[in-house]
């Protein structure tokens, strides 16, 4: 605003002046003499744009982050590498209500409180299903030096900050009603199972379909989350196929990666009535998609949450 005042002042030595270099007419840089009159509109636009951007950034940061207390933290796997974190949204009904589709996600950060390093917010998929009440649940892998590690070390009552719910989630309308995809093949690896949990517990008519398979990949049973939910999921119409890449000698099930277990079996009866839901590493998604499309499955019925 000081620059604008200097521009409109009567002739005389300016207190603050700006000059636009002839070769860079849109730049704003300090100078010793006032700009030519023809450059004033450009200068005003530049100043206005900078001011608007700064104000917008402040407003956006203040509006997006919602503080909420942690209501539960605990190990989700027997080796303690993955944690279950729940956040109470009793005082954030709008945020809870904006979560409408399995597969949506948000950013989460842990305030340092002035006593530690500020870390980048982490992107987390919501593991609990939409409409499950005033809380969000997350599946968090502890990675040293990250926000995820801090989340895993929190206790009940500690406060985190949540960003806005993002993404459209899985486009389930492409495999709805159940007759549109009597076979649904689901693939997840590691913490990618969090979005699949939200899908299964939200409900997509698995018990109305003839063949719904979940290929769930992990290093070992010790790193496989949600084993306590398998019985309920199977009663909802899923066939769960655990696939371990580093099992011990007692393991009698599928070995390797989730996509490889599927490729060994395939067993697609009717490609035109087959859909898939993918959540995991890019390579897995690419291999599964290529195999399904080659077998005649419509690309439109292969769902991801991105």
TrEMBL record:
Domain FAD-binding FR-type as annotated: residue spans: 63-172
InterPro entries: FAD-bd_FR_type, FNR_nucleotide-bd, OxRdtase_FAD/NAD-bd, Riboflavin_synthase-like_b-brl
Start and end residues of each stretch annotated as Disordered: 1-35
Any matching Pfam family: NAD_binding_1
Residue ranges with Low complexity bias: 1-31
Gene3D superfamilies linked: Nucleotide-binding domain of ferredoxin-NADP reductase (FNR) module, Translation factors
Transmembrane domains' residue ranges: none
Protein name in the entry: FAD-binding FR-type domain-containing protein
Organism for this UniProt entry: Urochloa decumbens
């Amino acid at each position: 605003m000081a620059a604008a005042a200097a521009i409109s002042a009567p002739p005389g030595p300016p207190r603050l002046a700006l000059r636009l270099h002839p070769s860079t007419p849109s730049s704003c840089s300090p100078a010793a003499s006032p700009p030519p009159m023809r450059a004033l509109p450009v200068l005003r636009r530049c100043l206005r744009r900078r001011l608007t951007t700064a104000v917008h950034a402040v407003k956006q940061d203040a509006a997006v982050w919602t503080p909420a207390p942690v209501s539960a933290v605990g190990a989700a796997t027997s080796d303690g590498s993955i944690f279950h974190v729940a956040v109470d949204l009793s005082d954030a009904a709008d945020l809870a209500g904006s979560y409408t589709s399995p597969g949506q996600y948000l950013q989460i950060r842990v305030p340092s409180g002035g006593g530690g390093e500020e870390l980048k917010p982490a992107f987390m998929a919501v593991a609990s299903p939409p409409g499950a009440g005033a809380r969000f649940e997350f599946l968090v892998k502890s990675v040293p030096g990250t926000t995820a590690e801090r989340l895993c070390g929190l206790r009940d009552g500690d406060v985190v900050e949540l960003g806005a719910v993002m993404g459209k989630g899985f486009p389930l309308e492409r495999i709805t009603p159940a007759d549109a995809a009597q076979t649904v093949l689901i693939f997840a690896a590691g913490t990618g199972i969090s979005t699949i949990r939200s899908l299964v517990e939200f409900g997509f008519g698995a018990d109305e379909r003839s063949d719904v398979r979940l290929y769930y990949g992990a290093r070992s049973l010790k790193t496989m989350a949600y084993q306590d939910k398998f019985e309920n999921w199977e009663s909802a119409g899923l066939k769960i196929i655990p696939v371990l890449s580093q099992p011990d000698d007692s393991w009698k099930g599928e070995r390797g990666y989730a996509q490889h277990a599927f490729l060994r079996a395939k067993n697609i009866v009717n490609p035109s009535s087959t859909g898939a839901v993918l959540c995991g590493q890019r390579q897995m998604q690419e291999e599964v998609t290529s195999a399904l499309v080659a077998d005649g499955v419509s690309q439109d019925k292969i769902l991801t949450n991105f």
